[in-house]
């Protein structure tokens, strides 16, 4: 199967089918309000994606590139984000209960976590290329 254009991926089912067929690049995907609960998207490139209000509870996002993605109001309860790229990611209003962040890269100046969330105690790693 040829890779779908991101503009052709309109639903969570489309995304999961493209991923199952081997596609990993979903840069600038717009999937706001989708349901990806329990989805396996390990290693996908979702940089610059709009995933606002998406249910990603229990999702495997290990090693996923979420740089500059919008995850405002997303539900990441129990999601596995170990090793993910979170440079410039908007997680400000996301639900992060029991999410795993060990070795996830973030930029303290550009990544936006919810108020009271401490990326260091959650296991995140400050991106060395971006910090002074």
List keywords for this structure.
132 residues; little secondary structure; Pectate Lyase C-like; 3-stranded parallel β-sheet; 7% helix
Give a verbal description of the structure.
The protein is mostly loops. The chain is built from one helix and three strands. A three-stranded parallel sheet has the order 1-2-3, with no helix packed on it. The longest helix has 9 residues, at 12-20. It is globular and about 40 Å long.
Q: Strands across the major sheet, in which order? A: 1-2-3
CATH class: Mainly Beta
Determine the structural class based on helices, strands and strand pairing.
little secondary structure
What overall form do the CA principal axes indicate? globular
Q: What is the beta-strand fraction?
A: under 5%
Instruction: Please work out how many helical segments DSSP would assign.
Output: 1
Looking at how many chains there are and whether they match, the oligomeric state comes to single chain
Distance between the termini: 44 Å
Counting DSSP E segments of at least 2 residues, the number of strands comes to 3
Helix content: under 10%
* Main sheet record: 3 strands, parallel
CATH topology value:
Pectate Lyase C-like
CATH architecture assignment: 3 Solenoid
Task: Supply the CATH superfamily name.
Answer: E3 ubiquitin-protein ligase SopA
Mean pLDDT: 95
Task: Work out the radius of gyration.
Answer: 14 Å
Order of helices and strands: HEEE
Low-confidence stretches: none
How many separate structural domains? 1
